[in-house]
Write a structure and sequence with these properties.
The strands form 2 sheets. A 4-stranded mixed β-sheet has the order 1-4-3-2, with helices on one face. The protein is globular. It is built from 3 helices and 8 strands. The chain is α/β, with parallel strands linked by helices. The longest helix is centred in the first third of the chain and has 11 residues. The chain folds into 2 domains: 67 residues, 2,3-Dihydroxybiphenyl 1,2-Dioxygenase, domain 1 (Roll), CATH 3.10.180; 62 residues, 2,3-Dihydroxybiphenyl 1,2-Dioxygenase, domain 1 (Roll), CATH 3.10.180.
């Protein structure tokens, strides 16, 4: 495997989520339309014959670029976001260049911050303990946990 192609997130209110991911975090919308719910109509069939609204939001540059897929089922997306260390993907993280500035932007927008910027040991990133990282965790509008990390010179 070479890297993550994309991460998909089910959302309750697409417009609210777009204000968060597109407007606040700065991800770029490259697709917004109805799509079939892939290959599992008996498990995930929506009232609209297996269709969902999907928005592809791109981030990054070069080899590290990727995209996030937000999806909303017609009539509403059910369920609750899981929390850290529960079964399933409990969070994901992006590398950023200025974590403290992003934290201030999120805080000013009223985003729920779970872990404010904190310096952490590089051992948790599979590197030598001599290097340090900044990390910050917060929630999106549906309570999905997101993380940003920044490499600190060292």
């Amino acid at each position: 495997m070479n890297g993550i192609s994309h991460v998909a997130i089910g959302v309750r209110d697409m417009e609210r989520s777009l204000r968060f991911y597109r407007d606040l975090l700065g991800l770029e919308v490259r697709f917004d339309g109805m799509q079939p719910i892939g290959g599992m109509p008996t498990l995930y069939a929506s009232p609209e014959k297996g269709q969902r609204r999907a928005v592809h939001l791109h981030y990054g540059t070069g080899e590290s670029r990727g995209f996030l897929v937000l999806s909303e089922r017609p009539g509403g997306t059910p369920g609750e976001a899981i929390k850290l260390d529960q079964v399933g993907i409990s969070h994901f993280s992006w590398w950023v260049d200025d974590l403290r500035a992003l934290h201030q932007k999120l805080k000013a927008a009223g985003v729920k911050i779970l872990v404010p910027p904190a310096e952490v040991d590089a051992g948790g990133y599979g590197e030598t303990a001599a290097r340090k990282y900044l990390t910050c965790l917060f929630e999106d509008p549906d309570g999905i946990i997101l993380q940003v990390d920044q490499r600190v010179a060292g």
